[in-house]
Write a structure and sequence with these properties.
Layout lengths: L6 E2 L5 E4 L9 H10 L18 H18 L5 E6 L2 H13 L5 E6 L2 H13 L1 E7 L23 E4 L1 E2 L4 E2 L12 E4 L16 E5 L10 E6 H4 L12 H6 L9 H16 L2 H21 L17 E4 L4 H13 L2 E2 L10 E4 L6 H15 L4
Parallel strand pairs: 2-13, 4-5, 4-6, 6-9, 9-10
Antiparallel strand pairs: 1-2, 3-11, 7-8, 10-11, 12-14
Helix pairs in contact: 1-7, 2-7, 3-4, 8-10
The structure holds pyridoxal-5'-phosphate.
The site of pyridoxal-5'-phosphate has 11 residues, from helix 3.
């Protein structure tokens, strides 16, 4: 590993990871994990081997929750849960916990991940699509300024960052609603400052901006916990999870340990505010380059553009594939776009340093002039 965020595999090979998730981790975090792997906090054991009922592990969970609360400014009116099953389980857990007798909720449809969430809610009750970007091929976040809550809806659901389509509902574009807002923040949590008080519930898988797969964060307003039904499976019951401090069963200790390290790293780097400054700089570097190029094209509405997942196309699908292949040969890994939309996708999460964006731009320049 070298200081510019690339990985030095050998004298000949150096790589950058642009994967949408599992994604690049901060180099410092990986080094710390390496150092502690055989002996976590003088236990003589790795963190993967300690009991979750012991005080060392409980302290790790408590510290991790406190760090997350501090970084995201989460008040005591909210509970923080460490759950399993990925963000995808939350597509079902949200309606199963938050539906009241009408079993109905409003959904803002902005791409593949909301499509799956809507389908899951429809199995349990009714998901009413109150705004959709479908007619714009999801290249634009629909107008959210005049949303009206459906009668008897239990919540309003949205995804703050559409990992596949490369669009974002920015903090300043968040809708206002009489309903509790539920947000899938899997791919942009900790990247920009959202006001937590706007939300009833936020969930996010950890494997993009918070660590590795295995733990899913749920931040839920305490009054909503009362809606959880005892008829729900225990493992998705928010109220039960909260009462058991997220340790109803054997929790994903290693994933929480990595989360703890990543949160400390974010804090050291200046917190979410500083992450946002750097993310905006990184993304504009890349979008500016694309907008000024004759070969690459980004067709996302400018105000909807994601800071985390920058998608672009070459003139044909064959050229996209060729570009991704040549990029890999040069150590720029996982640039192929998602199979739903094709093209190229560069994921530049918090842990991707500016040098990583610069390295991509340099390659794109060389590729464009045929000198790669
Ligand atoms: C926005 C969004 N939601 C949900 C998911 C699903 O996450 P998981 O694989 O943790 O279930 C992803 C995964 O990429 C995502 O990007």
């Amino acid at each position: 590993m070298v200081a510019d965020g690339s990985r030095q595999l050998s004298m000949q090979k150096k790589t950058y990871n642009y994967s949408a998730g599992p994604a690049v981790l901060p180099e410092e975090v990986l080094k710390e994990i390496q150092t502690e792997i055989f002996d976590y906090q003088n236990t003589g054991m790795s963190v993967m081997e300690i009991s979750h009922r012991g005080k060392v592990c409980i302290a790790l969970f408590d510290e991790t929750e406190a760090l997350l609360r501090k970084l995201m400014d989460v008040s005591e009116h909210y509970s923080v849960l460490f759950m399993q099953g990925g963000a995808r389980l939350q597509f079902a857990a949200v309606p199963l916990n938050l539906f009241t007798k009408n079993k109905k909720a409003d959904y803002i449809h902005t791409g593949s991940w909301t499509k799956y969430a809507i389908a899951e809610a429809d199995k349990i009750g009714e998901a009413v699509v109150v705004a959709s970007g479908e007619n714009d091929h999801f290249r634009k976040i629909p107008d959210l300024s005049k949303l009206k809550a459906s009668a008897d809806a239990d919540y309003l659901y949205l995804c703050t960052n559409n990992t596949i389509e490369g669009t974002t509902i920015r903090p300043e574009a968040m809708p206002v609603s009489v309903l509790p807002i539920v947000a899938d923040m899997s791919s942009n949590i900790l990247s920009e400052e959202y006001d937590i008080e706007q939300f009833g519930l936020i969930f996010a898988g950890a494997q993009k901006n918070m660590g590795i797969a295995g733990v899913t964060i749920v931040i839920v307003r305490n009054d909503l916990l009362e809606r959880s039904s005892k008829n729900n499976a225990d493992m998705i019951n928010y109220q039960l999870m909260q009462s058991k401090q997220s340790m109803l069963n054997t929790p994903p200790v290693f994933a929480v340990y990595v989360l703890n390290k990543v949160l400390k790293w974010v804090e050291k780097k200046g917190g979410v505010r500083q992450m946002a400054v750097q993310n905006k700089e990184k993304a504009s570097m890349l979008y500016d380059f694309i907008d000024n190029s004759n070969l690459y094209k980004n067709s996302i509405d400018v105000d909807s553009r994601s800071l985390m997942n920058v998608i672009f196309n070459l003139p044909t699908a064959e050229e996209d594939a060729q570009f991704a292949k040549e990029a890999e040969k040069n150590g720029l890994m996982f640039l192929k776009g998602h199979r739903d939309v094709g093209g190229i996708r560069a994921s530049i999460y918090n842990a991707a340093p500016p040098e990583q964006v610069q390295a991509l731009i340099e390659f794109m320049k060389k590729y464009e002039t045929g000198r790669y």
